[in-house]
Write the structure tokens for this entry.
Amino acid sequence: MLKTKTISFAGTNREFATTLNKRVNDYFAKNGVGKHANAEMILKTVFMFSLYFIPYGLILSGVITGTLGLLSSVVLMGLGLSGIGLSIMHDANHSAYSKKEWVNTVLGYSMNLIGANSFNWKMQHNVLHHTYTNVHEEDEDISPRGALRLTPYSDWKKIHKYQHIYAWFLYGLMTIVWLFFKDFVRIEHYRKNGLAKKHKIDIRKEWFILVVSKLGYFGYIFLIPVLFTSLAWWQVLLGVIIMHYITGFILAIIFQPAHVIEGTEFPLPDENNSLENSWAIHQLLTTTNFGNKSRWFSWYVGGLNFQIEHHLFPHICHVHYRKISSIVRETALEFGLPYKSARTFLGALAGHARLLKQLGARPAVS
């Protein structure tokens, strides 16, 4: 049975969400600005795809052959791969890139193009994480992961005492795990727990897309370089692993401080399976911004350092988050609600490390 179908938000204070939505909508209307991608976003899309595919093409054509050149190309591909995930795929799969759904669908499949799976991501991220942020056993982003304890309600193991040290090394494995293992496990999980059926998903079609896109990815990222360049198979494999390790690490250190950070909350439903607050207030309690003053940082990470704005308005393209952030902040403070923000990215990472250490400590026996 699907556990999440019985969870509800019992909070009766809807005035905050109503007021905020009106003010944000008024901003777009008064300024004649669309909520979707603009010229900046289109330029970024071209840049990120180029950052990924141009080094790949140079390696394949034999223009780059030396060790330093090959390693530099792999690093650039890792940065491009991260950029595609943080900006293009992310906005598209939230239907925030374009008002034309077919554009969102096509660009959403950029996730399959880089080795992961769009369907699985939508289920885990859009449906579960964005609805039940930081709720134990509902938000799979903080679900029990063996070596990592990301919620105070997860089982504690002795190894967790050191997670604030080793977690950083594990973060780089994130997309590698997706590539070879997690996508296959998750699609079957969503079939069995009823989530796919609830959202009227043809699971056979999604299995077909997953298998074909995985074969296509392995074909162009591994098989073609082995067959058409002078590189040995192990050199290609090493390059792919390095590229994905860079990507996984970048993605993890951007997403983790937004919710798993000192000062965040991990609400639990009551005996009636209800959460205390309304959905919008729940997002404020479980989400943190960071490094908002740095424009280049915001540009690269797809505006995800404005995580509060993203969670409250996931269907708005991230290029608009900076403009609406003052509206969100002022409205939250007006209603006596928190607007959590770390001044710098490094400060957010430090807050994440401190919470990892706290969660890694042996829980007190009640």
Summary: The longest helix spans residues 67-93. The chain is about 60% helix and 0% strand.
